[in-house]
Amino acid sequence: MKRKNAVTIFDLAKEMNVSPSTISRALNNNPTIGKNTAKAIKQLARERGYQPNSIAVSLRKQQTNNIGVLVGRMNRPFISSMIAGMEEAARSEGFNILIAQSHDKLVNELNSVHALQKSLVSGLVVSLAMESVDYQHFVDLIDDGIPVLFIDRIPAGLEVHKVIIDNFKAGYQATRHLIDQGCTRIAHFSGSQKHVLYQERRRGYESALVEAGLPVREEYILSASALSQEEGASMTEYLLQFPEPPDAIFAANDTSAVGAILHAKSKGVRIPEELAIIGFNDDPQCQIVEPQLSSIIHPAVEMGRIAIEQMMHILHTTETLPAQTIVLDTSVIARASSLREHKKSVN
């Protein structure tokens, strides 16, 4: 449908008494059009306020100034912060982002990939769905010449562009913090072990235990499909029934850690005296729950910004770039949920 009062190349062609194709070639600097004719056409276009149809231009070029962004769940604070970083970086480059969410379902991820491809995105930034373990749909995109960069949740075994944190180090840091507070029976809430980041956080957890001479107790390591607050509460309930329950929990996200705090308090468990808890991501809820939740700072905004900057580098380079992995650092932010009284004077 023609935009109201929009000037088209047909209007310009009628006024100049030339063909629409001549107008189009002149505006696109085609050398077959004489300099004087091209100059006159461009002058008339400026005077009439002509604007090219961006959709038509995109269809001719088979790409747009849009970057597709595919994430698990936008309602997670970490994801929304990451998207904010992406949007700011894309806008500064004259690009837009088109966002889709998989709700951590593989079928949704597949459908979103196809939809974004049909939208002629110039590139795709992806944080994998929890159910995603087969990556052929992304390989197909790359083979079709569409750059794909993975962020946070990355595929195993694929040589692709990535922006991540050192999840092993972060898992080690979280567990070491609990050990430094005098905890010796430390449980771990993990996401799916099919995903690299949860494998690495667990590996860091186990490494810290072994280094401290503490046993790795398989019954203390629990996995959840979404690491929701409800799952955190349910896993805590399970652990508290042990004859020798854990005296600390390292949760692989803040949401399940909040569930642990709320359930433990409902059972009269004192936090952190009887059960110290640390989460992951440093979401806003960390400072709302009582006691405030210790966490691992996850640089979400910076990750999003760097992902788009790297995508711009890929798009603006004519050569095929080798896969690059950018690793960002993390740190512990200690709050009341893990700081035990006899250790506070030391910290």
Short description, anyone?
With 347 residues, the chain is an alpha/beta fold.
Could you outline the blueprint of secondary structure elements for this entry?
Elements: H1 9-16, H2 20-27, H3 35-48, H4 54-61, E1 66-71, H5 77-92, E2 96-101, H6 106-118, E3 123-126, H7 136-143, E4 148-151, E5 161-165, H8 167-180, E6 186-190, H9 196-211, E7 221-223, H10 229-240, E8 248-251, H11 254-266, E9 276-278, E10 295-297, H12 300-315, E11 325-328, E12 331-333, H13 341-344
Parallel strand pairs: 1-2, 1-3, 3-4, 4-5, 5-11, 6-7, 6-8, 8-9
Antiparallel strand pairs: 10-12
Helix pairs in contact: 1-2, 2-3, 5-12, 8-9, 10-11
**Annotation, overall tally of beta strands:** 12
Counting H and I runs of at least 4 residues, what is the number of helices? Answer: 13
Radius of gyration: 27 Å
Proportion of residues in helical segments: 40-55%
Question: Could you give the distance between the termini?
Answer: 66 Å
CATH class of the largest domain: Alpha Beta
Order of helices and strands: HHHHEHEHEHEEHEHEHEHEEHEEH
Strand order of the largest sheet: 2-1-3-4-5-11
Per CATH, which architecture of the largest domain?
3-Layer(aba) Sandwich
Structural class: alpha/beta
Q: What share of the residues does DSSP label as strand, in percent?
A: 5-15%
Number of domains: 3
Q: Looking at CATH, which topology of the largest domain would you report?
A: Rossmann fold
Characterize the main sheet.
6 strands, parallel
> Which outline best applies?
elongated
Low-confidence stretches: 1-5
